[in-house]
């Protein structure tokens, strides 16, 4: 029996129930701390930023794969069922289905209470953009864009890599995603140092993003949103730019009949993203809950399809 048929759905269900474990060491937090230490070391030891950033990326990615593979191998050698338990735990920590819902709903409930200050505070925990001067519409837009992007990099991608390579590849993907979120910025400090990490993240998310072209519109149909419009906006807007995140964002924008994109500020620097979707409906806080529903159904559809094809 292929043990992935049990370990991956159990890990998925655990994430739906418990979300990220906060009371004990989390592998992704350990990866993040290692990135910080190595970044400081490599910046001091290697003068060339691109070289230092490339070395950082390969050390983190290769180290994560090797350590995770070794842990699973040794635990399985000790006891098969113990090894399965370790595999379940590691895959579980790579998923972010429930946390995506919880963190997004915190923004939703703050908006429901007309407390923009709390909404901006909660939003700042899940986005990289500046939130201090956002109005209600921009808070809603930022939340939906984060949910849509996370359908790929927080759910489909780790599930995809878990399905094809177990916990070692799932955690390796999370190391790539963590690197990108920490050093993959297009600013003066990280443009050269984070170049390699950003490129690898784009490559790692390519196939899952392509799969989302079919998953999100289908999930939208189950949510009584527009499958046709979701496909239309993907091919009209989502595929004409180089950003992988444009694909799921365009899919969600089309499904909900809203327009995403526009100007964002990162450390007070304006960055303009292309518009995605048509402004058929004004952005409303209710769209946050619909986006979460689309994310949940997309993840379930992908898991079922993946297990059937194993």
Structure description:
Strands 1-2 form a two-stranded antiparallel sheet. Helix content is 73%, strand content 5%. It has one domain. The protein has 310 residues and is mainly alpha-helical. The protein has eleven helices and two strands, in the order ααααααααααββα. Helix 1 packs across helix 4 and helix 8 crosses helix 11.
Question: What are the main properties of this structure?
Answer:
mainly alpha, 11 helices, 310 residues, two-stranded antiparallel ribbon, 73% helix, single chain
Helix and strand layout, with pairings?
Layout: H1 4-18, H2 27-45, H3 49-78, H4 80-94, H5 97-112, H6 116-124, H7 136-183, H8 195-222, H9 227-238, H10 246-256, E1 260-266, E2 269-276, H11 286-309
Antiparallel strand pairs: 1-2
């Amino acid at each position: 029996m292929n043990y992935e048929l049990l370990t991956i759905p159990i890990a998925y269900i655990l994430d739906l129930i418990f979300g990220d474990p906060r009371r004990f060491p989390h592998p992704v937090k350990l990866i993040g701390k290692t990135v910080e230490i190595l970044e400081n070391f490599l910046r001091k030891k290697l003068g060339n930023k691109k070289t230092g950033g490339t070395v950082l990326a390969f050390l983190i990615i290769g180290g994560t794969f090797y350590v995770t593979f070794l842990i699973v191998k040794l635990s399985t050698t000790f006891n098969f069922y113990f090894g399965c338990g370790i595999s379940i735990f590691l895959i579980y920590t790579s998923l972010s289905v429930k946390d995506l819902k919880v963190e997004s709903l915190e923004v939703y409930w703050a908006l429901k209470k007309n407390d923009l200050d709390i909404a901006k505070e909660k939003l700042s925990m899940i986005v990289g953009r500046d939130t201090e001067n956002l109005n209600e519409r921009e808070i809603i837009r930022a939340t939906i864009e984060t949910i849509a992007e996370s359908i790929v990099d927080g759910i489909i991608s780790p599930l995809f890599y878990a399905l094809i390579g177990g916990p070692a590849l799932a955690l390796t993907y999370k190391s790539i995603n963590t690197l990108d979120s920490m050093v993959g910025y297009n600013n003066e400090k990280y443009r050269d140092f984070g170049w390699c990490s950003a490129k690898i993240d784009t490559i790692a998310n390519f196939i899952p993003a392509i799969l989302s072209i079919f998953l999100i519109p289908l999930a939208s149909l189950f949510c009584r949103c527009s499958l046709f419009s979701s496909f239309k906006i993907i091919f009209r807007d989502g595929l004409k730019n180089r950003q992988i995140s444009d694909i799921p964002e365009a899919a969600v924008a089309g499904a909900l009949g809203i327009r995403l994109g526009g100007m964002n500020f990162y450390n007070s620097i304006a960055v303009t993203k292309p518009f995605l979707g048509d402004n058929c409906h004004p952005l409303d806080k209710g769209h946050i809950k619909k986006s979460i529903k689309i994310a949940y159904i997309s993840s379930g559809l992908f898991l079922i399809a993946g297990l059937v094809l194993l």
